[in-house]
Amino acid sequence: VWISSMMADFLKEGTSTRTAKEIAEAAASMGGEISTGAGNDASGLSGTCLSEFAPDFVKLLTDVLRNPKFPESELGRIQANYLRQIAVLKSQPSSLASTGFFHVLYGDHPYGRVFPTETMIKGYTIAAIKKFYEDNLGAKRTHLYIAGVFDGKKVEKAVRESLKDWKPGKEIVTNIPVPKSGRKVY
Predict the structure, then answer these.
(1) pLDDT single digits (tens) 4-32
(2) What is the dihedral of CA 131, 78, 113, 4, to 10 degrees?
(3) Closest to 13 in 3D by CA, of 24, 28, 1, 3
(4) Considering the entire predicted model, what is its pTM?
(5) What angle, rounded to 10 degrees, do the helices at 20-29 and 54-66 form?
(6) How far apart are CA 30 and CA 160, in angstroms?
(7) For residue 131, what pLDDT band results from cuts at 50, 70 and 90?
(8) pLDDT in tens, 46-99
(9) Rounded distance, CA 43 to CA 24, Å?
(10) What per-residue confidence (pLDDT) applies to 34?
């Protein structure tokens, strides 16, 4: 639970050629920023930049996507951030209601597990996060969307060069939940 979000956060923590600071500075120098996120069904890496930098920005994003470093030095900080976030969310009635609702509806399916336990968060290792990355990211599972006003030929060239030898990865897994239905008060 939430390991996908932790993996997404680690994407911005450095690559084999850039530190987290260098990634942020590179994006800012192009008038942009990079964002990551994940949920039950998808993870995302996105960003914005000034149009004249679009080909270079594609190269930056694909470096972040394909070459994450997963620095051990950041694990404790990220785990602490998640524990704080969970504590805040669990203090909100709407979060508690959603947790109960999804558990009743989906049981032990991933949709029914809204919050990880503290033990889970503290138990996630760099090895586990890397394994999640390797099991779930690859060309077969990726969709690329580029929108805006830019030189299409240059951007297409940057995409093709940056992703031409990306490993396919595993096939998409479909785990459709079977929701419970019935009349009962919880």
Answers:
(1) 999 999 999 999 999 999 999 999 999 99
(2) -40
(3) 24
(4) 0.90
(5) 160
(6) 21
(7) very high
(8) 999 999 999 999 999 999 999 999 999 999 999 999 999 999 999 999 999 999
(9) 20
(10) 97
Q: Which long-range contacts (CB under 8 A, 24 or more apart) does 38-41 make?
A: 38/4, 38/5, 38/7, 38/8, 39/4, 39/5, 40/4, 40/110, 40/111
For residue 40, what pLDDT band results from cuts at 50, 70 and 90?
A: confident
Output the six-digit token pair for 86: 């969970």
C-alpha angle with apex 6: 136 to 46, nearest 5 degrees?
Answer: 70
DSSP string, the chain: --HHHHHHHHHTTBBSS-BHHHHHHHHHHTT-EEEEEE-SS-EEEEEE--GGGHHHHHHHHHHHHH-B---GGGHHHHHHHHHHHHHHHTTSHHHHHHHHHHHHHHTTSGGG--S--HHHHHH--HHHHHHHHHHH-SGGG------SSS-HHHHHHHHHHHHTT----PPP--------------
